[in-house]
Amino acid sequence: MSDWSAESDQEGSVTDRKENIVKRDFNAWRKRRSFVEMDSPLMCQKEPNEACRDRLVRTPTIIAMAGLPARGKTYISRKLARYLHWIGIKTKVFNVGEYRRAVTEHAYKDFFDPDNAEAVAILNQCVQRALDDACQYLSEDGEVAIFDATNISRERRRFIHNYCTQTHNFRVFFVESICDSQEIIEANIKEVKLKSPDYKDLSQEEAVADFLLRIQQYEKRYEPIDDKTDERNFSFIKIFNCGERFLVHKIAGHIQSRVVYFLMNIHVTPRTIYLTRHGESELNVQQRIGGDSPLSPQGKAYADALAEYMANENIPDLIVWTSQMQRTIQTAANIEAPKEQWKALNEINAGICEGLTYMEIAQKFPEEFSARDQGKYYYRYPGGESYQDLVARLEPVIMELERAENVLVVCHQAVARCILAYFLNKDAEDLPYTKVPLHTVIKLTPMAYGCLMECIPLNIDAVNTHREKPKV
């Protein structure tokens, strides 16, 4: 590893389911529930066991980033990890920069000089340690490990590929970010790099100057992935200028297909996503779940307040998305913006429990009521959906949200929980208990390494539909 030179430092820090006939049909359904709706690997009605896991990820995958500093590799790594985690794939990022910062207090431009033998040795040790940890993670119960490093030389990439495929029998997929837009590079430096622990003791001007010199050190050794060399046998995607153009080569397997699908939909344009539940409905007032009831008087008041709020925000090119249920359509009716109705945004299907109160469900179907409390994310209502099913249904919505600019999504409690879980990286266990109160606007601002959330109550009274997680 001694020839790899100074190419290992990374961006960012290391730093979620009516009497006689119904009962007869319900019992028949219970007998066959283990054999239905299992065509998709994301549609397991209970927590995945090894067999279910094997259907989704047969061979663990190392996703290795590649490219010069300030090209958005860590941004891509973290967004990709969040997406894979959200769809139920166990994923972890291994950022070589964090390993390096654990052993060096400061690393300015000279540290990355390929002629600095001492620094090269330190960087190579950090690379090997991070790669070993990633492989150990996949050897235990991990499914995808994202190796976040520059990996700018063919020798380095060849080593990663051979080490992971031959020594560990994992798949390897390279993601190279190439950017020649000085505007994008400078924006990335100012938004991300200046907040790095490397520059906590420097002024902004000093940090920018030092980082530009660091990039020059990397450029001395940079060899882009080249399918005219032995890298023709590698699986990879090249991303040019944050999504202007893509080159996809030798995709192998389910995971790599999902990764490419995701990467070709994200962008880094600044925007705000507004999220709100419909106004209070008549069934909300009765504490009944599901259904397609109209708004209550308080719900209509919220619709008026929401329209006024959005007008005052003066959002350019705003688009409003609603479900196909009347309570969301009524809520958005007065907003002056183009509107689209999404069936995928409809509330979770409660099956035979639609229109019942929680007390009625507990009385009529006590076993089901208890089962849902024991595993709410994976529990599927008889004849209905689980939160896991809902996540699978919402994936196209998430992809469009990643492509869109300024959007207001008017939806439902369970749907909003799933969307928030994606942007806030919540675990499956916590997702079904996320608080999403009525008559509140949630502003989501995607940032370089996460998402900023702001909650704005519009001060219209409404019932509380949140049910706390039962104590075990």
From TrEMBL:
GO terms for biological process: fructose 2,6-bisphosphate metabolic process; fructose metabolic process. Residues 57-270 form the 6-phosphofructo-2-kinase domain. Transmembrane segments: none annotated. SMART domains: PGAM. One of its GO terms (cellular component) is cytosol. Keywords: ATP-binding, Nucleotide-binding. The active site is at H278 (tele-phosphohistidine intermediate), E347 (proton donor/acceptor). It comes from the Eukaryota. This is 6-phosphofructo-2-kinase domain-containing protein. It comes from Adineta ricciae.
